Amino acid sequence: MGTAILLKDVTLRDSRKDVLIERGRISKIGPAGESAAWQLAGDLDMMDCSGMVAIPGFINMHTHSPMALMRGIGEDMHFHAWLDKIWKVEEHLDHEFVYWATKVACLEMIRTGTTTFNDQYWFFDSSVQAAREMGMRIATGYDVIDKGSREEAERQKEQCIGKSEAFLHRNDPGHIYELAFHAIYSVSEEMIVWTSELAEKYDVNLHIHLCETRKEVEDCKAAHGGLTPVEYLDRLGVLNPRLLAAHTLWLSPHDIELLAAHGVHCIHNINSNTKLASGYRFLYNEMRDAGINLCLGTDGCASSNNLDLLEAMKTAAIFQKAWRDDPSALPLGELMDMATVNGAKALRFDAGRLEESAVADLLLIDTDNTFFLSPGPFLANLVYSAHSDCIDSVICDGRFLMRHREIAGEREILAEARKVLAKIA
Hints:
Urease, subunit C, domain 1; 2 domains; 39% helix; 425 residues; TIM Barrel; alpha/beta; 4-stranded mixed sheet
């Protein structure tokens, strides 16, 4: 896991601490100055963190990272027209494009405080390679989308099994392997069931889009005897605690009951949903009160246009307050959990908390600027006032990915990304 890191005089939960990171985990936390008495051996990277606040690294629970090179290609379009255009562009992609586009996405996510991202895209093995070279943790795997073609379904079955078994045998701690199917309108019923059963066999998560638009719900009801998409998946036996459902905007009370009963994790993507006019009334209170684990994502840059989870936090909160006519809706502590520990719970790894023994994924926030001068609570200033450029340093799995806003290899990545753009020009 590399050199041990000692963060000296960092503010943690409103008090000044020394924090020791060893072998990828937080090994010791004590009062500021106490580390002078600790028995520290071997290589040690010490950093003076006075004036900085440590928080857990953000977990982006739904994105399509290679779309970092597809911003702005479908502006001011209705959802299904936009989706058709995206699919046409994606016909020209290959491993090289996905590799460099994912590296661009990683640059942006590191700068904006994300340490782990839950991805869904073609040529996922190239995204895994890019993320690991950047030092980030990625959750991704084979994405099924047969569009009703039996021939394509059989091809994807064979490929999915081969890829899955190869990646599961790697046992890479920086890659959380999962399966995906795109959505109920783009995947045949047979393949929905087949993919879900394979995820159960391998005991991996299944990442899907669900109830993203009103049309999706209406079409499902028309095709399946009045069943909503959630009810349809329940009938197929797909709902379970391994299911990661992105969007979940258009839900009935019965849908919420089913999602809660089966332990499904739901992911809010407010910037993408509002920009594409898919909807904005995410039923946070209702789902939270039912016991559903709620997470936060950015979606891909072709719809949300950036991967800044701090921006998504602010937007999610102000929309909840506005449409509910309730300024107390989505309080800051719960918002922070959506962006951190709830994602770790869904992905089944021990992060999202700054405590001894936890995985060392954390951000160092520089408070020496105008946004943190007021006596207001730190989280209020961070979410509602500051921007992501206040993130001074990022540590993932006990290693610096960014230090004092510097990321290794950035110029080369941007130069190579410009070259592969020719594939979709």
